[in-house]
Structures
1.
Amino acid sequence: MNTKNLFSIAHDHFHGLMLAQMIKRGSTTSDVMPVTLEGKAKYTVRFFEQELENHFYLEEHVLQPEVKGISPEIDAIFAKLVKEHNNIRKLAKDLKIEEDLEDKLDLFGRMLEEHITTEEKILFPKIQEVLSEHDLQQLAERLNKKGYENIFRY
Ligand SMILES: [Fe+2]
Ligand SMILES: [Fe+2]
């Protein structure tokens, strides 16, 4: 299989955390991020449309059905994560309106950071805890067939 085409959660999360660092209040300047609030907002909306939208879709429509029903805790965590996706979607739309950009960018950065941390530190470890080694392997293989990188490899 050509691993280049695999959807990589870890890769996207790394990019998301970098973005959060660059748009939160008091962030340090960076080569890739525009200096003005308007520029930052446009960059963030583009990042959302080009990376996050697809990432959220795959988490909700590929990963979630795979783990649905295996534990009430995982179902509850996923319900919370989907709500967070919707809040981030709304905020991305709101960033197109050029007012209160400093507050909105700060909020977007903090929400995204917290969301990714919940997935990495709570959701993924929980899935690993609940599923046996054998089931995890099978899950990874099914995800792989759908073009989804093994999220438990790292
Ligand atoms: Fe997510
Ligand atoms: Fe994610």
2.
Amino acid sequence: MAHINRRIVGPYCWKRTNKSVEEVIAENPIGKISAISSCPFIYKIVDSRATPQGDGMFEVLFSVEPASPDETAVFLKWDWSPNADRGDQAMWTASDLRQRSWYSGIPVDKKLFCAAHQKLMPAHGGNLYDNAFVCNRCVEQIEMAIAQNTILDPQTWINKHAAISMVMNKIDEIEAHGHGNIKLGTRRFIEIVVLYEFIRNSEYKADAVIEDHYPYKDMVPTAYRGYLREDWTPDEYFNAPTKTIVFTSRNKLVDFLESGGKVPANSKK
Ligand SMILES: [Zn+2]
């Protein structure tokens, strides 16, 4: 039975003048272990085809499945000996987890809640640290930090990142709606109104990240107008803001929220 994560690589058009179908197939033989950027795992070829198109051109196509952990270790030349680089080993630990989850048959679109990102993330290569599940991106960072002796324990790292992620996720949510309230303390809120920029005709469009979750097509958030409201909760009738603060970048809004709502010194009344 085919592996659940079997996929097709190609088709490619290759020029192989004076070569037979068998010779072209032999370039991608069944059983070969390899990697390609469009495939998220180290693969093993399970079926290989080459179709002559005339003039020495071939349409090349092969089916692949995730390679086993042992095959992957040999292919990537992992070295777990004590004199190998600890940083490399940290990255290999993360790759090994990722490969094992593809190999074990976790489906391509499976997501799990990452305790550090505080949202659903791709499940492949995630790991448990003290019963907290984190995604593979976080595993890489935790393993690297352990290798470099920059953290005391994974749980401290996860808690710190969870706090930052909650701020980031809240801003994402507000960007998706155009406005929203963030609690700063007891009866103290900042209401954020997102200002968007129209970028469809911008010559810088290629550099811009156009996220489809923003409420307006071809618009990206550029600034945030914040209305600081004190002695108020969002379910109460209108109350004039104590202060209006314009955040000219997402980073400035993040700084403000991470400080617990400390008003910038130069802001106007
Ligand atoms: Zn994560």
3.
Amino acid sequence: MRRVAGLLLALAWLEAATARQAVDHSAHEGHDGMTVSRAGVVMNENTDVLPRGCDAISRDYEFEVRAGSRYASEPGKIFGMSEYEWRVEPCSRVRVTLINEDDVRHQWMVHGLPKYLYPAGMFHVEAMGGQSQAGTFIAPAEHANYLVHCDMAQHMEKGMRGQLVVGRGAGGLWGVTGVTDAFYRAAYLPKLLPLLFALCGLAAFSAGLFLLRFRERRGGS
Ligand SMILES: [Cu+2]
């Protein structure tokens, strides 16, 4: 009898512990910069710490981004977002609400942010299927382009690739859906390559013409 009572007590304790863990997990603000809720996940949220070079929050932005297969806009794409480019001022505070209209998870993830403030240089909002999730970060002081994508397997390749342009931006990104060329342009190739080809062609033609006239003149004398 005593053994059964002990077993029951142990089971009750185990159940209580599991329930406590489940409650903790339903809205968990972690020291590792991750907030988990039933609707989704926010990583490296930052509402008040200024990046280096910022004296104050310059401006507040609120973006609503819808994600889902109905936004796939180009041939060969499966997923999409309602926008692919977001322009903000340096040192501005940006709140992104990701509204997921699909059944699968989607993310709005920025890369290349300063690592002293955002671990791995990353900020992300993830919304479970049919849910919406909001998160906030503060843009750096530098003028730059940052890759924004969904990190679920193949979602970026299949359309979920955008860019955050801070200030004037710098270093254009390729393959931003509906914004930039869909192929990689090697950085070592000069930007004015077509012009260079045209000039070389013109120079070759002129040299040929000159040689022809030179030969004609020699033949005539
Ligand atoms: Cu996705």
